[in-house]
Amino acid sequence: MDTASRGWLNGFIGVLIFSGSLPATRVAVADFDPVFLTAARATIAGLVALAVLVLLRAPRPSRAQAGPLAIVAAGVVIGFPLLTALALRHVTSAHSIVFIALLPLSTAAFGVLRGGERPRAAFWIFSVLGSLCVIGFAAGQGLRAAPVGDLLMLGAILVCGLGYAEGARLSRTLGGWQVICWALVLSLPPMLALAAWRVPASFASVGAAAWAGLGYVSLFSMLIGFVFWYRGLAQGGIAAVGQLQLLQPLFGLALAAGLLREAVSPAMLAVTVAVIGCVAGARRFSRPR
Predict the structure, then answer these.
(1) How far is 208 from 212, CA to CA, in rounded Å?
(2) Could you say which residues form the signal peptide (predicted)?
């Protein structure tokens, strides 16, 4: 398997892990304050990341890498989790799928701006078509107008795309797992303080589902998923592998169907096939001539 293929495989594993993030967040914010949830997940993941860095004796980042790490931390450790947690107080998980479908375009755009990548024009055509497929499917499910939630999700997509692209660029020199671990450690002091400040007076009303949601977003969404994702982006290209995110909303729906025993409609299957085709097309034209 060549480097590009390994990149697509690692990226695919990362997307599978991320697919449970919004449903888990939706469950968690039912019992947790969104700000506390954001701080708690970053704190838990940061403590685990610190232990990993110490045990493996990872070298410290250089001074030149500190700035990019701060961008990663601001985008994927703080910005995206906080904005989505706040948004999911106003919109449903199904509604948020509309915006997740725009994440590949955001990642690709920042990959061009920050990573210097130049995919062919056909790549952008397949990218837009894939996004439109998912947006059209989600819109067809019936979405309610929620301006505050929509604005929060749009902001989340922008900061996440920047964090993905910056982290992937940094992974080429620092390493994928080191990038997310150091970004989490960089965020640990303020997130620990924020968690202590916003900690609830009592956890008696917090159900098992909310605790499970917190555990998932802390360990899988915040740490393990990024190990595969950043490695995949660095190996296969930010713009190219980023298109795998088009599958994330559909994986999320499939996960809900499997766990909640919801019916899988023919429309969902049709959109899945169409999006897979767009991802395949984007992969073919991901590299410049």
Answers:
(1) 6
(2) none
